[in-house]
Write a structure and sequence with these properties.
The chain is of the alpha/beta class. It has a domain of 95 residues. The protein has 14 helices and twelve strands. Strands 6-7-8-3-9-10-12-11 form an eight-stranded mixed β-sheet, sandwiched between helices. A four-stranded antiparallel β-sheet has the order 2-1-4-5, covered by helices on one side. The chain is globular and about 70 Å long. It starts with 6 loop residues before the first strand and ends with a helix. GO terms for molecular function: ATP binding; ATP hydrolysis activity. It is found in: Cell inner membrane. It comes from Sinorhizobium medicae (strain WSM419) (Ensifer medicae).
């Protein structure tokens, strides 16, 4: 990437007080990511690994304990008043559940009008015109403006949520598993909508998901997160073809094959055990308690990040061998 990132997260930490006295939940721990104009970047990992907390901290729904979030090079923590509000408008969030993110008592028009008023459109005629444009962009008829959100299907509600996010002309969308709550038959339609909007509008998108097949379809780059930390990141195709972290390999192995004959024959290792508590994470490498390759060194110190190729890094002492395919057989045997 030769141009500057539109969004840069530097050493971000988000901690919450635990129910255990004197302890904290380390939900996001020293995370750094970059998002460039007009690209879709995937953020993947199991439930409970901190993906949603990271997204919510980026947009200000959660307070960072340390680190910085920079939008076009400006640290958002240094802003206040109108400058902060303007920057926040450039960062929009699409929630996972379209049934809880919209007010059932509102019409579609009222839901979108709120965002348009925030964006400075005071004229009712201008808001009506803009709402029709937004509904058309997300594939809904303009007549949907007069319907209550409770009358809509899940897919339609998510389209309204997307339209509302686009109303303020954002530069970055944080999409928190935006299709996981939808029926399988609707997911592809909404994913295609995201891809088209990203292409047409040039909005940068951080796409949070646990479905690696969806991320592979959409993202140019992928960050893999485990227990609050980024363990691997790189270009999507290379990371999928040559993962350099055992967690990435096992996540990919967990994706079912489309062909049932291939699925039946493969002997891929699946992830075993539960994600450890973020209140008391393991020493050294956080994945070591579930890793088939773990050795004594893994418990002694946090693994360094190995550069495997341009823009592809993995934090594992075995990363060079895994990336080169020398360790995949051992993972299968150990599993």
């Amino acid at each position: 990437m030769t141009h500057a990132p539109v969004l840069k997260v530097e050493n971000l930490q988000t901690r919450f007080k635990s129910v255990q006295r004197g302890k904290y939940v380390h939900a996001v721990d020293d995370v750094s990511i970059e998002l460039y104009p007009g690209e879709i970047v995937g953020l993947v990992g199991e439930s409970g690994c901190g993906k949603s907390t990271l997204g919510r901290t980026i947009v200000g729904l959660e307070k960072a304990s340390a680190g910085r979030v920079l939008l076009d090079g400006v640290d958002l923590s240094t802003l206040s008043g109108a400058a902060l509000r303007n920057s926040r408008r450039a960062l929009q969030y699409v929630f996972q559940d379209p049934y809880s993110s919209l007010n059932d008592r509102q019409t579609v028009g009222e839901a979108i009008d709120e965002a348009l008023l925030i964006d400075g459109l005071r004229s009712a005629d201008e808001r009506t015109r803009r709402a029709k444009e937004l509904l058309e962009q997300v594939g809904l008829p303009h007549t949907a403006r007069d319907r209550h959100t409770r009358e809509l299907s899940g897919g339609q509600r998510q389209r309204v949520a997307i339209a509302r996010s686009l109303a303020v002309n954002p530069r970055v969308l944080i999409c928190d598993e935006p299709v996981s709550a939808l029926d399988l038959s609707i997911r592809a339609q909404v994913m295609n909508l995201f891809l088209r909007l990203q292409k047409d509008l040039g909005v940068a998108c951080l796409f949070i998901a646990h479905d690696l097949a969806l991320v592979r379809q959409a993202a140019s780059r992928v960050y893999v997160m485990y227990l609050g930390k980024i363990v691997e990141h790189g270009p999507s195709q290379e990371l999928y073809d040559h993962p350099g972290h055992p967690y990435s390999q096992m996540l990919l192995a967990s994706v079912p094959e489309v062909d049932p004959r291939v699925e039946k024959l493969r002997s891929a290792p699946l992830l075993k055990g539960e994600v450890p508590s973020p209140t008391n994470p393991p020493s050294g490498c956080r994945f070591r308690t579930r890793c088939p390759l773990a050795v004594e060194d893994c418990a002694l110190r946090a693994p360094a990040s190995h550069v495997l190729s341009p823009d592809h890094n993995a934090a594992c002492i075995f990363a060079p061998d895994l990336h080169g395919g020398k360790r995949s057989a051992l993972i299968h045997q150990a599993a």
